[in-house]
């Protein structure tokens, strides 16, 4: 058991290292200085309090999107629809944020819950179709992403604005923004959402590992036949797994709606956060606390990359290449396991 | 006499585990040589070494006196070693011939010469009395026939030494007899056979010599003519084994399970259980004997609520459980040792400890208000592991990592511990070795002696005759006879199972 924990931790770490090394080769080949590039990246992510604030802010939705993917994965489902669930969650949170005028203790939780409910509803549909008609959730969730994108755009144009391109700002009582957090991070966009994301990780861990419902969900994810034999309601558990996963995704959307932006604009394409959530979950070994770390890695890479063109003349696209390489190495973890076992043998 | 295969002091180590500890196996030309050992004794490892799937860490392999290095299965093929796998490797939608030539297709002008291939397959089949139709589709032929296709595959590739890996595990009694004839024909034609098995009866019947291995060590090689099943079992397990399970006469009480006019259809809408009637009383074991595919699986799944029945009635302790969900049936007092322990019996990716509460996790003390109590769960697991002799490093080990026998013991422990009034055991000893079988039979009889009703479904006649107090013969979804195991013979049961009517009265219950 200890040795599996060991590999579960070290495989992603190794993959990240290999990704960084392969990334520097790409930089050298393309005529850039990798040391300067990575220094700029590191500075841009953690160099001063402003950058740290931005990195944590970027990490927040990644944590929740990663949790959403991982929760589904741990219960035997592949939720590619996190992106769509995130968008409808974003919309719902902003909608509640602009339409009501309530005390903060009610308004803010209500907006977050609305986002969770919207994401859950969006995920219920593929869950129901899978449980009832055995339609594969991957296909439905992909289609639901497009529906989410265009439906929210239509609602923003027709309901939340007068044929405009963005909604009004949410009321202060629904906002996650914090002057205190902004002031200690040199006026970054850091907001209270990170606390919600961390609570989300604890909730996922507790729900899956400590409760009877989590036991059922995991059992159904691993073996539907044995779960049926044991008297569990398999269809209901499939739907529930999707709904919980969607709720996490919806809350990820609320982080953008109530925290970072305070409104919602018409989108030309996907935010990408939901899709990155798949990679975050993968690198985090589908473990709640692993996901916090891998979301931080993603946040740092994305934010730090912005610094690369100005101080090292390295295009930001290179960071996308590094991320892709890291994912590649995690996915080919068999290779890393092989290397690790060779390494261990020789070490003996 | 010359040896065709010699494996001398073969050693194979996986990590810290010694799977083969200096085992020696010498096979003479034209003999049927049994390789006998418990599950996990190292039989498969040894054969995989011979077939080139594993490389030995020590020792030497000689084929016809020449030292060889078998680096992969192709080398084994070239040396004339063929393996008939336990799990067939056939393409369902291909014909017999297409499967046989797969990988070494004869061609004529760039096209597969199927006519010539069919002719060759037909000749081979006739020569060894296999009676295989070269043009039949795999999907349309019986399991026994599919096995013969596997045999033909090795012969087509020119195998001189055939390894049979547990070949009778999937066959009916009649098919086993036919296979024995085929093996004799092969040996007559000069082939040599290595038979991997843990069934002593088959060894006594068909083999010339037997090599016994136990826990990775070679125990010795004996002439079958000079030994007996008791000695072989003792060598294999390392202690005395009792075949005839001792039991007191049954003292049946009230009726626990009552099935009336039960009709079950399969997924295609074919009636597989046909107006079946059966009762099981407290304190007795009723064995259901029958050839696989006569409705046993569907009968058990309908009783346990895994599939919906069409009509009829099922009562447990007088309570109607017909088409109730599995949890209601479990709570009404039913225990179920499922036929397929990997599909239904266990969540293989869960620790063995969590598998021990698969039906009871939502009850106290294993959980309280929806929160699991792992202390209580693992305490129960430790108790069951000790009580039922489940050999596992610890209770946190994944169920997948356990051997089949230990997985089965874990399931039986879990089911018996819930103290059900009716215990349904479907193929409880499939694929297990004599030591584990003895243990499981004892536990079933123990349940009976405590006044529980036990329904045993098995394709092994020995098991049904040995353990049951009454035998119900199932044929085409009906119970065609109820017989007393003390007053019947294997021949009579075999005939009843094949559908012949019983002369005496009392055709149905």
Automatic annotation (TrEMBL), chain A:
Keyword Ligase: no
Coiled coil feature spans: none
Domain of life: Bacteria
Membrane spanning residue stretches: 9-29, 35-53, 60-80, 110-129, 135-156, 190-208, 238-261, 273-301, 321-340
InterPro entries xref list: ABC_transp_permease (IPR001851)
Pfam hit, one: BPD_transp_2
A Gene Ontology molecular function term of the record: transmembrane transporter activity
The keyword NAD appears for this protein: no
GO CC annotations on file: plasma membrane
Bilayer topology: Multi-pass membrane protein
Protein name: Simple sugar transport system permease protein
Organism this protein belongs to: Anoxybacteroides tepidamans
UniProtKB/TrEMBL annotation, chain B:
Keyword rRNA-binding tagged: no
Keywords, ordered alphabetically: ATP-binding, Cell membrane, Membrane, Nucleotide-binding, Repeat, Sugar transport, Translocase, Transport
A Gene Ontology cellular-component term: plasma membrane
Keyword Lipid biosynthesis: no
Superkingdom field: Bacteria
Signal sequence residues: none
InterPro entries: AAA+_ATPase, ABC_carbohydrate_import_ATPase, ABC_transporter-like_ATP-bd, ABC_transporter-like_CS, P-loop_NTPase
Cell location: Cell membrane
Domain spans labelled ABC transporter: 5-240, 257-501
Topology of this chain in the membrane: Peripheral membrane protein
GO molecular function, one term: ATP hydrolysis activity
Pfam families in UniProt: ABC_tran
Similarity annotation: Belongs to the ABC transporter superfamily.
PANTHER family: CARBOHYDRATE TRANSPORT ATP-BINDING PROTEIN MG119-RELATED, GUANOSINE IMPORT ATP-BINDING PROTEIN NUPO
Name this protein carries in UniProt: Simple sugar transport system ATP-binding protein
Record lineage: Bacteria, Bacillati, Bacillota, Bacilli, Bacillales
């Amino acid at each position: 058991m200890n040795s599996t924990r060991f590999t579960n931790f070290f495989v992603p770490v190794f993959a990240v290292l290999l990704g960084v090394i392969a990334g520097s080769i790409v930089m050298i080949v393309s005529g850039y200085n990798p040391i300067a590039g990575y220094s700029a990246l590191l500075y841009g992510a953690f160099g001063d309090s402003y950058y740290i604030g931005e990195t944590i802010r970027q990490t927040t939705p990644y944590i929740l999107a990663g949790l959403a993917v991982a929760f589904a994965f741990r219960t035997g489902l592949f939720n590619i629809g996190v992106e769509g669930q995130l968008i409808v969650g974003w919309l719902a949170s902003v909608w509640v944020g602009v339409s009501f005028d309530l005390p903060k203790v009610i308004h803010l939780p209500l907006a977050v819950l609305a986002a969770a409910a919207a994401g859950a509803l969006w995920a219920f549909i593929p869950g129901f179709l899978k449980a009832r008609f055995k339609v594969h959730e991957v296909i439905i969730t992909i289609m639901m992403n497009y529906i989410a994108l265009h439906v929210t755009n239509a609602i923003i144009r027709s309901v939340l604005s007068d044929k405009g391109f963005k909604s009004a700002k949410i009321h202060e009582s629904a906002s996650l923004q914090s002057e205190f957090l902004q002031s200690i991070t040199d006026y970054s966009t850091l907001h209270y959402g990170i606390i919600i994301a961390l609570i989300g990780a604890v909730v996922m861990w507790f729900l899956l590992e400590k409760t009877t419902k989590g036991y059922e969900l995991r059992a159904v994810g691993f073996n539907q036949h044995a779960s049926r034999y044991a008297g569990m309601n398999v269809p209901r558990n499939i739907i529930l797994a999707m709904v919980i996963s969607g709720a996490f995704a919806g809350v990820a959307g609320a982080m953008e709606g109530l925290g970072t932006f305070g409104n919602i604009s018409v989108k030309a394409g996907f935010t990408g956060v939901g899709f990155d959530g798949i990679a975050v979950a993968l690198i985090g070994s589908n473990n709640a606390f692993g996901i916090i770390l891998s979301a931080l890695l993603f946040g740092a890479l994305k934010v730090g990359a912005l610094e690369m063109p100005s101080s090292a003349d390295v295009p930001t696209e290179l960071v996308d290449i590094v991320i892709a390489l890291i994912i590649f190495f995690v996915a080919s973890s068999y290779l890393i396991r092989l290397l690790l076992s060779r390494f261990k043998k020789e070490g003996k | 006499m010359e040896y065709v295969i010699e494996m001398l002091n073969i050693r194979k180590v996986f990590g810290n585990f010694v799977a083969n500890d200096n085992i020696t196996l010498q096979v003479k030309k034209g003999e049927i040589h049994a390789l006998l050992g418990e599950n996990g004794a190292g039989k498969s490892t040894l054969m995989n070494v011979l077939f080139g799937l594993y490389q030995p860490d020590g020792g030497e392999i000689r084929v016809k006196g020449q030292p060889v290095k078998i680096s992969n299965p192709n080398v084994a093929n070239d040396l004339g070693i063929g393996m008939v796998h336990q799990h067939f490797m056939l393409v369902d939608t291909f014909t017999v011939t297409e499967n046989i030539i797969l990988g070494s297709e004869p061609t004529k002008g760039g096209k597969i010469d199927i006519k010539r291939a069919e002719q060759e397959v037909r000749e081979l089949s006739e020569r060894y009395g296999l009676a295989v139709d070269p043009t039949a589709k795999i999907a349309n032929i019986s399991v026994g026939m599919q096995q013969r296709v596997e045999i033909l595959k090795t012969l087509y590739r020119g195998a001189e030494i055939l390894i049979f890996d547990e070949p009778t595990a999937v066959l009916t009694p009649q098919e086993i007899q036919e296979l024995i004839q085929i093996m004799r024909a092969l040996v007559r034609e000069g082939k040599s056979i290595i038979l991997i098995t843990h069934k002593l009866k088959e060894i006594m019947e068909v083999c010339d010599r037997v090599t016994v291995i136990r826990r990775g060590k070679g125990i010795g090689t004996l002439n079958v003519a000079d030994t007996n099943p008791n000695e072989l079992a003792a060598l294999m397990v390392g202690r005395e084994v009792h075949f005839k399970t001792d039991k007191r006469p049954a003292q049946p009480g009230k009726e626990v399970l009552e099935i009336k006019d039960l009709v079950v259809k399969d997924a295609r809408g074919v009636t597989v259980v046909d107006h079946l009637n059966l009762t099981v009383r407290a304190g007795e074991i009723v064995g259901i004997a029958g050839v696989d595919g006569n409705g046993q699986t569907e009968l058990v799944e309908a009783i346990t609520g895994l599939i919906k029945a069409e009509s009829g009635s099922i009562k447990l302790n007088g309570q109607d459980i017909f088409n109730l969900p599995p949890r209601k049936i479990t709570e009404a007092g039913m225990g179920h040792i499922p036929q397929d322990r990997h599909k239904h019996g266990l969540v293989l990716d869960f620790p063995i400890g969590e598998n021990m509460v698969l039906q009871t996790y939502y009850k106290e003390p294993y959980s309280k208000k929806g929160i699991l109590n792992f202390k209580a769960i693992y305490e129960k697991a430790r108790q069951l592991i000790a009580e039922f002799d489940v050999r596992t490093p610890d209770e946190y080990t994944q169920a997948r990592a356990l051997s089949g026998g230990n997985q089965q013991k874990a399931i039986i422990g879990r089911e018996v511990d819930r103290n059900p009034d009716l215990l349904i055991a479907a193929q409880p000893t499939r694929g297990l070795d004599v030591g584990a079988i003895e243990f499981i039979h004892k536990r079933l009889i123990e349940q009976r002696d405590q006044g529980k009703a036990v329904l045993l479904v098995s394709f092994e006649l020995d098991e049904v005759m040995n353990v049951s107090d009454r035998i119900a013969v199932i044929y085409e979804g009906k119970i065609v006879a109820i017989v007393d195991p003390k007053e019947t013979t294997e021949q009579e049961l075999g005939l009843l199972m094949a559908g012949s009517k019983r002369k005496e009265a009392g055709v149905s219950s």
